[in-house]
Amino acid sequence: MVLSQNFLAPEDVKIKKLLDLPAGLMRDLLPKSPVYSKNIFVLFDYDNKIVRLIVKSIKYKNNASLRKRVAGYLYEEIMEMASEISLFEGSGPLLVPMPMSKMEKKNRGFNQCEELVKEIKKMAGDNLAVSYNILKKVRETQRQTTLSRTERALNVANSMVAVPLKIGTATFRTIIVLDDVYTTGASLLEARRALLATGAQRVIGFFIAH
Asked: Who contacts 133 (Cβ-Cβ below 8 Å, separation ≥6)?
């Protein structure tokens, strides 16, 4: 496989090799995630080393070129789902990023999920509604990577709030929450709780990897 070649090369070289591939070929070569349900969509399998490298580069290094490439893949899937939602519900969904607390965002310097949503919005234009402040994280939490499944759920419990789901005169029944990695689903469950409490009828999670 092209993507497995020279994996011991420096990280920036590996990323360049990825981006040198046509977007469609790169997506076809990356292993698809086995996770799929009515309200959860995941692009790639996190067990793959190259997928982990992609997530790391977007999440911690804010790699703009790679972010734009992956945002393109997410855009395709989100717009297909948005069309179905509009057809059956009479109105489209609202796309929101998984929020960070103020301290988390200050420490990292950016919210990678917000950056992905911005890229998707550039591609979608007026065909997709987005919001960066309807869903907020109001409590500091520990890093989920160090915790067990049960601890993850307790860690994020009641850490998010949502405000009325309106932009101008539009009210949204379906919310798409964009995050980078789906592990136990604790963060999505907390986001769903907050959004349903404010009037959402359906919350869908979109992820780069699981």
From this structure: 163
Positive or negative, the Cα torsion across 16, 113, 189, 172? negative
Interacting residues of 80 by C-beta distance below 8 A, sequence separation 6+: none
Per residue in 82-128, pLDDT (tens digit) is 999 999 888 899 999 999 999 899 999 999 999 999 999 999 999 99
Q: Which domains does the chain have, with CATH numbers?
A: 11-209 (3.40.50)
